[in-house]
Hints:
Structural class: mainly alpha
Number of helices: 5
Shape: flat
Order of helices and strands: HHHEEHH
Strand content: under 5%
Distance between the termini: 93 Å
Helix content: 40-55%
Amino acid sequence: xxxxxxxxxxxxxxxxxxxxxxxxxxxxxxxxxxxxxxxxxxxxxxxxxxxxxxxxxxxxxxxxxxxxxxxxxxxxxxxxxxxxxxxxxxxxxxxxxxxxxxxxxxxxxxxxxxxxxxxxxxxxxxxxxxxxxxxxxxxxxxxxxx
Length: 146
């Protein structure tokens, strides 16, 4: 028979197993963390005693032994960056020949001017309910439509 005075069937509720598993899991996580800290501190002490660098990236900063592919490391990168800077700061033609490139500062000025023209709606037009925008973007093909 079912005892209805408790509001549930007592033989179906067994909370002990999940609680025990949760406690064991928590103890395992804490123990693993402590073991990792212990090993990390041990490795740090070992590296200080050996005068060796255990971190791979520290050793990567040194130049490899000869023969080297570049006799002056960084020279080619400096030349490449100078060429790119010159392209970004001067006028010129693109590979398409129908287009030109402009310096970045000039392009930023054009961009800022175009964005400010698009967003600048007169407050009178908004109050009157007029939704027209007086700033018109130019047609890239011209007015003739060619």
